[in-house]
Amino acid sequence: MKKILIVEDSSTVTKILRHLVNQQPDIEAYFAGSLAESEEVYQAHKDEIFVAIVDLNLPDAPNGESVDHFLAKKIPVIVLTANYKEETRSALLDKGIVDYVIKESRYSYNYVFKLVRRLDKNQHIKVLIAEDSRPTRAFIRLLLQKHLYQVLEANNGLEALDVLKDNPDVKLLITDYHMPEMDGFALVKAIRQNVDKSDLIIIGLSGEGESSLSAKFIKNGANDFLQKPFFHEEFHCRIMHNIESLELIEQIQDAANRDYLTNLHNRRYFFSKGGAQYQLAVKNGSPIAVAIFDVDKFKKINDTYGHKIGDDVLRFLAEEIQHNLLHFLVARMGGEQFCAIFPNLKNEQAVTLMDRLRSVISNTSIPIDHEDQDLDITISVGVTNYVHDSLEQQINYASELLFRAKDAGRNIVIGDDDD
């Protein structure tokens, strides 16, 4: 949960903000009505405060002194004011505030909380600047750092390709048109041979007046274009719009790869991602384990308690899987059956890991809402490291071990050494 400091002397505005804060499950706020009070709050919680939202006109700071006060503490500052003056707005943006928001409507206040969440997310987003002009590169870097992005730099297109190779998790590239060795167009073309628009945002830049440049950039694979010089707010709005579009695509893709009931990955994703892990292990000659497991006597649970309780059992199991197998790919294969893949683990290691999960499940009871009792469940598991001609064949052999676990009395893990 992110904790913010709101400095506002209007009781009406404070009431509105308190109400909106209560609707933000991921944000907690400390309130102050003056600069002096805000300093007291800051000293009491300085290790917790993520962002300061400040009014420009306070009883003891009538001329925006609160902005300088918190900028000096290296805290991101969002100005929330009823007064719009162009010269004040420009001066404050040049000082390094995150944004200048006018108290116009409920949307304005909601936009402030959207900014707070955006800043939190930005801390985990890498942005690469490809620009041969050092002053321009420094200016763009400063704009991005105000919004807490992780910033990488390159002097030209060739350097940018090297940086992207070393940092495949870069989400946004901002590239100038004119650069030595490889210009912006050539850079975009080279990237788009392997990287789709839904995986990396590219925004082109140019100071030239040719009106067709924006179309050329976008036709060659850029997501957007900005003409230099640009305003702070236009820059941040374009960046935010493109990042949010990318995040929306990622959410849609992730939802398509998830099982609706358990939120684990689904069978299709498992064979896609797990298949790549399998092929890499075969290529490198490294160990790879596969485990197939399911809920013992699941049909009896459904027949006795109903499918709603059966769904609760599967959700409970999924939560324990996510907790105990956090760093590995696990999917619901269908019904009560699940599959996990363990790159670089030997069979005894994978068996130990799965037996730990089995023990947790067998020692935890599930409360039944409409019954005055708890439900105890167990799982049976088959684990193999025998690499076959395909991942599917390895899974099939793990399934044979699972059947042997059932025959051995259930609530047991059978591995290769038990064959």
Automatic annotation (TrEMBL):
Sequence ranges assigned to domain Response regulatory in this UniProt record: 3-118, 126-243
Organism field: Dasania phycosphaerae
Catalytic class of the enzyme: transferase
Gene3D superfamilies referenced in this protein's UniProt entry, alphabetically: 3.30.70.270, 3.40.50.2300
Gene Ontology molecular functions: diguanylate cyclase activity
EC annotation from Swiss-Prot or TrEMBL: 2.7.7.65
Cofactor: Mg(2+)
Biological processes per GO annotation: cell adhesion involved in single-species biofilm formation; negative regulation of bacterial-type flagellum-dependent cell motility; phosphorelay signal transduction system
Alphabetical list of InterPro entries matching this protein: CheY-like_superfamily, Diguanylate_Cyclase, GGDEF_dom, Nucleotide_cyclase, Rev_trsase/Diguanyl_cyclase, Sig_transdc_resp-reg_receiver
Alphabetic keyword roster: Nucleotidyltransferase, Phosphoprotein, Transferase
Cellular component annotations (GO), alphabetically ordered: plasma membrane
UniProt-recorded name of the protein: diguanylate cyclase
Keyword Transferase tagged: yes
Reaction equations catalysed: 2 GTP = 3',3'-c-di-GMP + 2 diphosphate
SUPFAM superfamilies with a match to the protein in the record: CheY-like (SSF52172), Nucleotide cyclase (SSF55073)
CDD domains linked: GGDEF, REC_1_GGDEF, REC_2_GGDEF
Modified residues (4-aspartylphosphate): 55, 176
Domain GGDEF, residue spans: 286-418
